[in-house]
Specification:
KilA-N domain-containing protein, elongated, 63% helix, 10% strand, KilA/APSES_HTH, KilA_N, 275 residues, 2 domains, alpha+beta
């Protein structure tokens, strides 16, 4: 679970967190906009026990949760509205195997709900609060997208700079003197495809054949992780060239490096937070 993020809605501080790649909002924090902190749990319990809320939660789970226990849900729904019916978020999750709501302890503890459900809970606070909540959430996502785009452009630039270092090594060690421009370009293409094969498992020509309608090239289509990894083999290949290794030996080493680094990056929590 990713570290919590914070937004402020009508002077109420609300925590958000990433859960299985989705945004969840702390409805315990939201409830504080309607009552004091000690009674926030009661606001949630009163909301979740109504038939309208249960129908919304059950419908959401049926759409997104294949392991949702519909029979248990139907049992709760028949009791909804009765004076004796009491239901907490923890009971809801334990009995129905729901994933739209969860509770956690700690500094950013409380009851969290998927953004769809949190926005619905906002109606229990007030229409005005709900609208400001949606507005602040959208602002947060726009800021995150801007940071991700900036980071992607930075990595793209880094890959280009390292490629210049790489081509300088080719000039120094691989290109015989007095070759024609066409011969020189063929050597460059060969070395570029060496890196493409090491990381992407295909040449630029293979990629173009598979993506005839795509704009740009395979590196323009690369993911953030691929661009980060790509900047490293380019520099390493320059060193291997100066060491006199042939292409077959270099391809084997570069491929292993790409596999190791890509495996590390896709499991890196900090990089996931940029997404």
């Amino acid at each position: 679970m990713a570290k919590s993020k914070i937004i402020e809605v009508q002077q109420v501080t609300i925590s958000l967190t990433d859960f299985h790649g989705e945004d969840y909002i702390c409805i315990t924090d939201m409830a504080k906009a309607k009552t004091d902190e000690s009674r926030a749990a009661d606001v949630i319990k009163n909301w979740i026990r109504t038939r309208t809320t249960l129908e919304f939660l059950g419908t959401w789970e049926k759409i997104y949760n294949p392991d949702f226990k519909v029979v248990e849900f139907d049992h709760f729904k028949t009791q909804a509205g009765l004076p004796s019916f009491v239901l907490s978020p923890t009971q809801w999750v334990e009995k129905t195997n729901a994933i739209g709501i969860f509770s956690k302890a700690g500094r950013y503890g409380g009851t969290y709900a998927h953004k769809d459900i949190a926005f619905e809970f906002g109606s229990a606070i007030s229409a005005e609060f709900k609208l400001y909540l949606i507005k602040e959430f959208q602002r947060l996502k726009e800021d995150e997208n801007s940071r991700q785009k900036l980071d992607w452009n930075l990595q793209r630039t880094l890959a280009k700079v390292n490629y210049t270092i790489h081509t300088d090594a080719i000039k120094e060690r691989l290109i015989p003197e007095k070759l024609t421009g066409k011969q020189t370009s063929l050597v460059y293409a060969s070395e570029a495809d060496l890196l493409n094969m090491a990381l992407f498992g295909k040449t630029a020509a293979d990629w173009r054949a598979e993506n005839p309608d795509a704009n740009g090239n395979m590196r323009d289509d690369a993911t953030l992780e691929q661009l980060v990894v790509l900047s490293n083999p380019e520099s390493i290949n320059a060193v291997l060239i100066r060491q006199g290794l042939n292409q077959s030996e270099r391809l084997t080493q570069l491929n292993q490096i790409a596999i190791t680094q890509m495996t590390s990056l896709v499991n890196n929590a900090n990089l996931k937070n940029l997404k």
